[in-house]
């Protein structure tokens, strides 16, 4: 960032430039993160100039209160920023003040009393067929031994092919392997349920049992 970017805040420009150099050289953040953080903190300085009625100084940063940071975030929301963008802005300013504290420049922890906006919870998205197949290949490639890869593939096929929860799949033992086409699993609140077991799932389980070098008991995994 050049000095021409913030002509009205000469007292803060060296601090900002040092932090940006730190992000690039030591933290090696992505160009996207660097640009976003730079805009966020520069926008915060612009807000302070309007909020304080003068060019902000290092002493002003030292004396900021939680209510001052909240006023800035409220302004950003009024400007139409999403909750996620406001949360990122707050993260950038926190990182800037953390840098100042660690380098002995100033110590103001008021921003730590400011909560990030609540983000809407996103429902998990199921894997498509291509991604599911790739995950099976990946676990086999990264396994330290072939039988471990077979084990992980068996677990994943139980998740994908039978719709089991991860806890249900991990709680299965050899005695649970059915002879028919239905699998009995223990679900939430210790409720049993029956799920159909596809041939490909059964084949993956049998491959694991054949390749496993350990003598697994019937009540073992």
Automatic annotation (TrEMBL):
Coiled coil: none
Protein name (database record): Site-specific tyrosine recombinase XerC
All copies of domain Tyr recombinase, residue ranges: 122-221
Residues of the Core-binding (CB) domain: 10-101
Keyword annotations: DNA integration, DNA recombination, DNA-binding
GO molecular function, one term: DNA binding
GO biological processes: DNA integration; DNA recombination
């Amino acid at each position: 960032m050049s000095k021409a970017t913030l002509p009205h805040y000469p007292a803060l420009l060296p601090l900002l430039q040092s932090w940006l150099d730190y992000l690039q050289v030591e933290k090696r953040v992505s160009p996207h993160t660097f640009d976003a953080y730079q805009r966020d903190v520069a926008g915060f300085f612009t807000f302070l100039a309007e909020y304080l009625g003068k060019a902000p100084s290092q002493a002003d940063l030292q004396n900021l209160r939680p209510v001052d940071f909240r006023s800035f975030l409220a302004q950003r929301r009024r400007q139409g920023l999403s909750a996620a963008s406001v949360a990122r802005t707050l993260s950038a300013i926190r990182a800037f003040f953390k840098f100042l504290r660690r380098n002995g420049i100033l110590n103001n922890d008021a921003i730590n009393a400011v909560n990030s906006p609540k983000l809407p919870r996103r429902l998990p998205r199921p894997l498509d067929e291509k991604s599911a197949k790739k995950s099976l290949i990946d676990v086999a490639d990264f396994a330290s031994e072939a039988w471990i890869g077979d084990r992980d593939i068996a677990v994943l096929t139980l998740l994908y092919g039978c719709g089991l929860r991860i806890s249900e799949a991990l709680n299965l033992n050899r005695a649970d392997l059915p002879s028919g086409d239905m699998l009995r699993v223990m679900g939430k609140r210790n409720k049993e349920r029956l799920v159909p077991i596809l041939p490909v799932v059964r084949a993956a389980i049998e491959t694991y049992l054949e390749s496993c070098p350990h003598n697994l008991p019937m009540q073992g995994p």
